[in-house]
Amino acid sequence: MKKLQSPWFRSILVLVLTLAVLAGSVRAVYASNGAFTWKNAVNTFEVFGTCSDPDGLYQITVVSSGTVHYVENENGYKFSSSESGTYYIEPIDADSSVTYSGRYSDHFQDRLNKGNSMFKHTFTNVGIGSDGTHEVFHLTFRLVVTPSGLVREVDNVQSICN
User: Fold this and answer.
1) Rounded Cα–Cα distance for residues 138 and 158 (Å)
2) pTM score of the predicted model
């Protein structure tokens, strides 16, 4: 166990708590059932790097569906989200002209209570390039914070390009 002193730990904690507050704001809007869903939402953003060109600039278009749940009780709060969808990656400024398409899933569960607070996140991405390249990325992250500020962290990242 580590004491909550590192700026990296604080940054993650601030990010997770910010997401929790946002989920709480969403809950206020959807207070009638504590949940909301979306279907076939399209988002586009830019990233650096793929299996074929780690330094290139790429545009990702994602079509996603998912749900968010929020529960508040006398012990604290519980947020959970599940999202899945398809994606398409195309080069904007890259040495490689390879495009990628595939599926992904993203799940998180946060519990904030009077005792330990727990944050768990799992992300999986499986795609194939126009040149036959396989791109697989899997992330599992779990963070537990005790009332005294002690942090227990477990993470696992796997990235496969072949």
Assistant:
1) 5
2) 0.71
62-80 tens-digit pLDDT: 999 999 998 887 888 889 9
Token pair for 41: 């939402």
Tell me how many domains the chain contains. 1
Answer whether 89's CB lies under 8 Å from 60's CB. Answer: yes
Structure tokens belonging to residue 13 = 């904690």
Q: What is the β-pairing status of strands 117-129 and 134-145?
A: antiparallel
* Residue numbers of the domain that contains 120: 2-161
Give me the sign of the Cα torsion angle 63, 65, 71, 76. Answer: negative
Of residues 67, 70, 95, the one with CA closest to residue 83: 67
Span 2-35, pLDDT tens digits: 333 333 333 443 444 444 444 444 444 444 458 9
Q: Which residues make Cβ contacts (< 8 Å) with residue 134, sequence separation at least 6?
A: 51, 126, 127, 128, 160, 161, 162
How many CB atoms neighbour CB 127 within 10 A? 21
